[in-house]
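Tokens as discussed.
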């Protein structure tokens, strides 16, 4: 089997696993009172559903691909980099705070990274039964239909997602929001950076900026945006990015320069 066919099979597996994980997480979401919930830090929650969903994903992926690496949000402390090894990068429930607040803006994220490039991306929103998928060089889809980023040229033409992480000071988000409003734009925050990036790929958001994202939140969505014709700075270029995360900018081509100004990098 050639490498292209192998990637097609991996994508089909990732889609199946994401749907299975989403169905499990959705059942947990319907019975929030039965979950154990703990705090990992300020505005950073984890639930029994996160742990069990990640375990389900890991078991199913490694059943098919036992030699692959696995980097999940809930088990990231166990991650070890092996040279030349393909790695699944997973957030079992991106948007845990909305999840525990009974708000349906959360999703399941899977990406496959090989030789410092994101080859495959799947983001599944079980609440709307929307599955976003991409393979590098082959375009991006939602439920099988092609995705395209916005053709807008002005920040005034729609909404820009702004994310925030307590890993950076408040000014890292407040200053970009001020610049966005001054440019006649408007911000949006749903609580899931992965879902926001999928919405950029779908043209629903003009752009998305977050001053710091972990790789399990960002690499899948970044591939979706690029394969949908947009621009992003989010590349898996080093072990440091994989382990420590980075700022993320993503937008339609006509908006990206304006987003750089909003983010303060231009």
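Sequence:
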């Amino acid at each position: 089997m050639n490498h292209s066919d192998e990637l097609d099979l991996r994508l089909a597996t990732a889609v199946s696993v994401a749907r299975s994980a989403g169905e499990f997480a959705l059942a947990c979401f319907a019975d929030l009172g039965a979950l154990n919930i703990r705090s990992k830090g300020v505005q950073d929650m984890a639930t029994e559903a996160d742990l069990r969903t990640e375990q389900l994903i890991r078991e199913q992926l490694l059943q098919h691909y036992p030699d692959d690496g696995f980097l999940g949000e809930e088990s990231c402390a166990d991650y070890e980099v092996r040279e030349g090894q393909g790695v699944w990068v997973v957030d079992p429930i991106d948007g845990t705070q909305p999840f525990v607040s009974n708000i349906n803006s959360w999703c399941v994220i899977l990406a496959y990274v090989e030789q410092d490039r994101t080859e495959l991306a799947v983001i599944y929103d079980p609440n709307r039964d929307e599955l976003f998928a991409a393979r590098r060089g082959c375009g991006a889809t939602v439920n099988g239909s092609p995705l395209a980023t916005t053709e807008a040229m002005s920040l005034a033409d729609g909404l820009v997602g702004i994310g925030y992480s307590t890993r950076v000071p408040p000014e890292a988000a407040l200053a970009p929001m001020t610049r966005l409003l001054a440019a006649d734009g408007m911000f949006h925050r749903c609580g899931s950076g992965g879902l926001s990036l999928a919405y950029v790929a779908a043209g629903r958001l003009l752009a998305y900026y977050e001053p710091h994202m972990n790789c399990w939140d960002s690499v899948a969505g970044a591939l979706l945006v690029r394969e949908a014709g947009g621009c992003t700075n989010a590349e898996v270029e080093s072990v440091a990015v994989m382990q420590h995360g980075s700022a993320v900018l993503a937008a339609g081509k006509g908006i990206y320069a304006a987003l750089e100004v909003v983010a303060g990098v231009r």
